[in-house]
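The material for today's practical consists of a large collection of protein records. There is nothing in a record beyond a sequence line and a structure line. Backbone structure tokens are a discrete shorthand for how the chain folds in space. Nothing more is needed to start thinking about how sequence determines fold. As an example, a complete record with its sequence and its structure tokens follows.
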Amino acid sequence: MSEVYAVRRGLLRDRYAAAGSAAALVSRPANVRYLAGGAPPGAVLLLGPGEDVLLCPRAPTGDPAHGRPDEALRLTVLPDADSDPVVTAAGLAGGLGVDSLSVEEHDLTVSRHRAMSSVAPRLRLGDLGTTVEQLRLVKDEEEIACLRIAAEITDQALGELLESILVGRTERHLALELERRLVDHGADGPAFATSVGTGPHSGLGRHRPTDRRVEEGDFLSVCLGANYRGYRCEIGRTFVIGTSPADWQIELYDLVFAAQRAGREALVPGAAYRDVDHAARHLLDSAGHSECLQPSTGHGVGLEIDEDPQLAPAAMGKLDACVPVTVEPGVHLPGRGGVRIDDTLVVRPEADGGPELLTITTKELLAL
């Protein structure tokens, strides 16, 4: 893997050198991990004209959740744990005679930016922008393998929950149990805060679980994901509790299922982000649910659970092969509840079988 990280850093070096910078400072945690292999809390990565340096406020603990830093990097632990590694890196760059440094301005506060200028006043600071995020868009097969394992863990945790008694249990209890099961099956932790919504809460995106108890006849919507070696996936499913679904529940579920299938089928290399969104959204719009829809139909996943690309009406850009995304349309009817169906897939060309579905828990409307 050391060669992989070196290649990634080389690509970044080409980008900032072409923009006229002599060095770059990467501070966003996911970007640090992508380039360095590991990102202990607070660590930053300085890419310079000589060797690259990973600066950490504290010595790495070996926690697998933080990854393992590339041994080819020089690891520097700050003597004072309260020091700001960003400011220390700027001083180090200035001391090396570097005249220009690209930084991730979208990750830095104004006060940190000023502190960098104060310790290295002759250092010209430029904006690296989202260069690393753009490099992260297309995943290699090892990254996809991590996502595949994260999805398997997530499917296992959800499948076990479906075999248990649910009536009378609270949303909060079910969410905590799901997160425990993720870890039991090998996850470093949940990819994001698990969402469980029952009855009138069902179908809400990122609903924060409450003490409402599951009742017979409820819709139950669940959204969860595993974090495995830093890579995060997502699955969302909706079920009916304890009885045959009502006619309105079947009708709403079938509609959202059709929209989700349309979105999945639109995932082909070269497809515009907004066209994928439209494929799912127009079915729900046509059924009169435009007021109930989320701003986007899906998003990229990887070292973060919500990264580029965004599958939204105004999104610009086109899909490449080997880009993992979610497709997660949903409809929530205020006071009644709703349906959300969410999968993680990898964009693949038709010659390779089309989009690869990573989350495989059934999408049949089950009565639990």
